Amino acid sequence: MTNFTIHNVATAPEGSKKMLEGTKKQMGMVPNLLAVLAESPNTLQAYQQLHQLFLDSSFDAEELTVVWQTINVEHDCTYCVPAHTAIAHSMNVDPMLTEALRNKEAMPTVKLQALQDATLSIVRNRGKILEEELESFYAVGYGQQQVLEIILGLSQKVISNYTNHVAKTQVDQVFKKFAW
Fold first, then answer.
1. DSSP code for 178
2. What's the pTM?
3. Is 70 in contact with 119 (CB distance < 8 Å)?
4. Three-state SS for 56?
């Protein structure tokens, strides 16, 4: 079996060096996921851009966490669940919400439950969400923009979750306390 390279700034392909430098400067480290993605500068760039675009979406910190973790748990990503638990903590998301997501429990509000239900339907049915599911989603105050933003978040998570499955990415030490 071939192991995927865990790059650092020195070993990364030229097209990935600046992105890894920026990450290291911002976070004080290069997470293993980004170190793996660095093998393909375009994939690393796409992941980072999708991440920023999703952060800039209409969703608040709780809603971002619901979409990310719902997808991570559904995809059984043992790297991203702990990483996004740490991210949720850094965004001051209630730990009870993150635990409910990690444990596939009900959401604390009708609106967050509708967001999780719509996200799961889109993931499980490859985008073929039923009209009545959309109506339930819209009934709690979401709209077409948020449907498209779930798909944006899913696009980001497909890159990370699938990469972590293929590369068997090891959870970084900083995320290990949130192991799942």
1. G
2. 0.95
3. yes
4. coil
Tokens of 40: 């393909």
Q: Which two tokens stand for residue 24?
A: 């290291």
Contact 155, 66 (CB under 8 A): no
Q: CA dihedral defined by 106, 112, 116, 118, rounded to 10 degrees? A: 130
Q: Which domains does the chain have, with CATH numbers?
A: 59-178 (1.20.1290.10)
Write out the chain's pLDDT in tens, 180 residues. 569 999 999 999 999 999 999 999 999 999 999 999 999 999 999 999 999 999 999 999 999 999 999 999 999 999 999 999 999 999 999 999 999 999 999 999 999 999 999 999 999 999 999 999 999 999 999 999 999 999 999 999 999 999 999 999 999 999 999 999
* Residues 26, 34: Cα–Cα separation, whole Å: 13
Distance CA 83, CA 77 (A): 10
